[in-house]
Design brief:
Layout (H helix, E strand, L loop, with lengths): L2 H7 L6 H22 L1
Length: 38
């Protein structure tokens, strides 16, 4: 688990930049998973 997601899970405050990066990481992971599944 990356640092941004760990902070979210632990309920720590994220900066806008951190939230943006965490969102991009989640998005890219979802895309990779769907590519593998296809």
């Amino acid at each position: 688990m990356n640092n941004y997601l760990r902070k979210l899970v632990e309920g720590q405050h994220l900066t806008e930049e951190e939230m943006y990066k965490a969102g991009l990481l989640l998005l890219s992971e979802n895309i990779l998973e769907s590519e593998i599944a296809a």
